[in-house]
């Protein structure tokens, strides 16, 4: 067996281990999918990864080598460690970890192709070409998700609760504290002024009805709206803008505050057309969140998600 063939087998074994990790990562991401379409895509990615792993195993055997039988177990362990670690990371750091894995797979697949050409192994060359195509597509997808998040989202993947908390903490730390103590105290008092009966409903919590839940949400939203106004009146525009973004992110804006005039009166096709005309990702996100919170029309939600992805791809240069 030549030195090139030995190197080729060794690289295929590394690719197999990384592919098993990739499969497990895709499966853990399914729970974070924002839409059913993304959930199906991630599930299909995991299935495709298993097909690639089987093809790599066959290639190793055909070259006279033996696949590492503990590879799949190592892949699961690596993905489990990664999943646990990133729970305390901001969302973007977790995605950057996924992207680093895919880049490693992509670059090693290109190296394997060069080795296969040198060894005149046409079947392995064809396999490497298949791997390059698959990982290039995944790199583009993850880059798009990162860009969506950078532009304010919503990304195709949802944050876990811990990731959301980490992101909010970073945002608050970076907000200049330039409002007066008096203005802040007034805003806090406004939020605290939510009727005591509503707080009691939350605390009891065992058998909260849908009506009670909506009442709690409405009171919270009204309190936040008033707090924003109080802070803005106090001259703290940046702090008020942060609070406004929180309201937009939870779908708590009034219809009159939306970037599309008369949005509540638009049917599905009209809403989709209006979304396609938006160029600011913040505006698209605001409409999407409002739609999810109030109307829930899947055609509109999908159109908004597609528009955000298109803007993100344009920003990062993906055609």
From TrEMBL:
Domain of life per record: Bacteria
CDD domains referenced in this protein's UniProt entry, alphabetically: Ferritin_like
InterPro entries: Ferritin-like, Ferritin-like_SF
Keywords attached to this entry: Coiled coil
Coiled-coil residue windows: 16-59
Gene3D superfamilies: 1.20.1260.10
Designated name of the protein: Ferritin-like domain-containing protein
Organism of derivation: Mycobacterium yunnanensis
